[in-house]
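pinging the channel bc i need a second pair of eyes. not urgent but kinda urgent?? the chain im working w is below, pasted from the shared doc
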Amino acid sequence: MQYDEKELLIDMLNNLERLWPLIWLVQLVSPALRDLIRGYVWEEDEQPVGMVKFHRWGATNTWYITTVAVLPSYRRRGIGRKLVQVALDYIRERGGRMTLLDVIAGNVPAYTLYEQLGFERFTGSIKFNYNQDELPPELPLPHGYTVLPLDFLDWHADYQLAQRIIPASVQRYEPAEEARFRRPQFARPLMPIIRRAIGVREGKIAIHTASDGQLVALAEYAVRVRPGGLNYTNMRIDPAHAELASYLVQNLMRTTQRLSPGRRTEFTIPQWQDMVIEAASAGGCVKRLEYDRMGMIL
């Protein structure tokens, strides 16, 4: 982890601890939020030496293992395998039907472990950094499109876009389900409170066709409004409208730098969005890491 990532993680965990009474109350009425953060710690010699962290993906039966970590001096002793196994056991008990995880490409020991446990690689992603002091130039929106205000974008349009563009090979493990996109009604008033507490401002850039108003591209960002940390972004574009990639990448980086200057922006792109990867490389983003995404049907 880079320094700004550590800084952001510590800050968010401290805020999460402060907000936990509020989150606990919400969990009483929302089964999905009860699985917001789950995990186990492995202790030896009276200290934590390994951990696994995982969570339910929205209100679906898909779970995501976010972290598997063992201190270097305790590796090659089967601790990582046991942690992943106990996580899978818990997920099954909670009715999980699918489990996903990402492994850094080239991490052969981890990749081999997950394969032995039953995971299969089905796609990948590339993480880019954007860290330039000057705002990138603003590009004009290509002819035939319009950027609509956020008020006109509901979860239905986002859901329909995902259904339309995510390849079938990816949807085998990452199906575009309504429960991934629909936000519980009672949770909406809480989100501004949580964002304010953790010092993050979120937004979306939605591009529609001018002719029929169909959503064809969507970019999301989360920028820091307090000192330290970094910015996060992602996007998805209908491959039939690849000409939007350069415009959206450039203006997304411009937006994050304008709202939260002086910070690194992290940009993760699925490998099947090759036109976005090309636009990011051409637009000044620097490739940092490549990931393999693996899945298991339970």
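so The two ends are 31 Å apart (CA to CA). and The chain has two domains: 3-124, 128-290. — does that match what u expected or am i reading it wrong
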